Amino acid sequence: MNRELLKDKKRIVVKIGSSTITHEATNNLNLIKMEKLVRVLADLSNQGKEVVVVSSGAVAVGRQAVGMKKRPTEVKEKQACAAVGQAKLMMVYQKLFSEYNQLTAQVLMTKYTMINDISRQNARATFEELLAMGVIPIVNENDTVSTDEVKIGDNDTLSAIVSALIGADLLILMSDIDGLYTDDPYKNPDAEFIDYVERITPKLESMGKDSASDVGTGGMATKISAAKIATDSGADMVIANGEDIRNISRIMQGEQIGTLFKAHKDEAFKLMDYLKTEQYSD
């Protein structure tokens, strides 16, 4: 696929992993990277692009704020950290975006938002209205109130679901890895980089490995799963390294960054078919 075509994408969902916006040693927010991120996203909006952000980091930020040294494992711990961290995270986002006169909105979702027909339609309508107003919605799972979110709670999948919900043209997953490899590059130095995926095959799915990151929840398996949802719904998807925030701009300029999964819109695609699988059912 000609990457130059990415320049013409209008509606873009950008997923930001915890490891992209926090310091590994402390779990504190990396304000320098967040400032760069906000500048890039605000500039996309200035270009007339419609931008939605799915941001991880709430649990990691909350964990640091309450002085929890180890990654929380119990539901109540995760929910408490999310409650503290989500407020702090949005405060920083709003402060930074305001410097560029860019309005943002917080959107917290659960699986029930998507499973219930009325709630799903209302969510879609809300996104449409926000984007028409030039607002950048910042989306996260509502970990504080939904115990089921712990079971399905990775923002790779959430970002793909949001992409399908709003009919996005492109999904960008900013992660702690350059893209898709034939094996885990952290463990196998001979792992080969894959820059383009025409179709997601069973062999490709078997390449999914857990991430080496300590703060995120989604490994490569969740990214491939997200790619299946995004590409079936008609969105191209790129996995790129969030270590350099400028990769977002480079992707939008058609540069050879990350792994590109080609969209192949399935006319029979129904988001509910994905949501009714065992992973998302009650």
Description:
With 282 residues, the chain is an alpha/beta fold. It has one domain: Carbamate kinase, CATH 3.40.1160. It is 42% helix and 16% strand. The chain has 12 helices and 10 strands. The chain has helices at 18-21, 31-46, 58-65, 75-98, 111-115, 117-132, 148-152, 155-166, 202-205, 220-233, 247-252, 271-275, and strands at residues 11-16, 50-55, 104-109, 136-141, 170-175, 180-181, 193-194, 196-197, 236-241, 259-261. Strands 3-4-2-1-5-9-10-8 form an 8-stranded mixed β-sheet, with helices on both faces. It has a two-stranded antiparallel sheet with strand order 6-7. It is globular and about 45 Å long. Mean pLDDT is 87; it is low at 209-218 and 278-282.
Write the layout of secondary structure elements.
Blueprint: E1 11-16, H1 18-21, H2 31-46, E2 50-55, H3 58-65, H4 75-98, E3 104-109, H5 111-115, H6 117-132, E4 136-141, H7 148-152, H8 155-166, E5 170-175, E6 180-181, E7 193-194, E8 196-197, H9 202-205, H10 220-233, E9 236-241, H11 247-252, E10 259-261, H12 271-275
Parallel strand pairs: 1-2, 1-5, 2-4, 3-4, 5-9, 8-10
Antiparallel strand pairs: 6-7, 9-10
In short:
This protein has 282 residues and is α/β, with parallel strands linked by helices. The protein is built from twelve helices and ten strands.
Largest β sheet strand count, sense and barrel closure: 8 strands, mixed
In spatial order, strands of the major sheet run: 3-4-2-1-5-9-10-8
Summarize the helix and strand pattern as letters.
EHHEHHEHHEHHEEEEHHEHEH
Going by CATH, the architecture would be 3-Layer(aba) Sandwich
Averaged pLDDT? 87
CATH class: Alpha Beta
Alpha carbon gap, first and last residue? 39 Å
Number of distinct helices? 12
Which residues form runs of ≥5 with pLDDT under 50?
A: 209-218, 278-282
- Measured as a percent range, the helix fraction is 40-55%
Gyration radius, rounded? 17 Å
- By secondary-structure content and strand pairing, the structural class works out as alpha/beta
Number of domains: 1
GO molecular function: ATP binding; glutamate 5-kinase activity
Keywords: Amino-acid biosynthesis, ATP-binding, Cytoplasm, Kinase, Nucleotide-binding, Proline biosynthesis, Transferase
Catalytic activity: L-glutamate + ATP = L-glutamyl 5-phosphate + ADP
Subcellular location: Cytoplasm
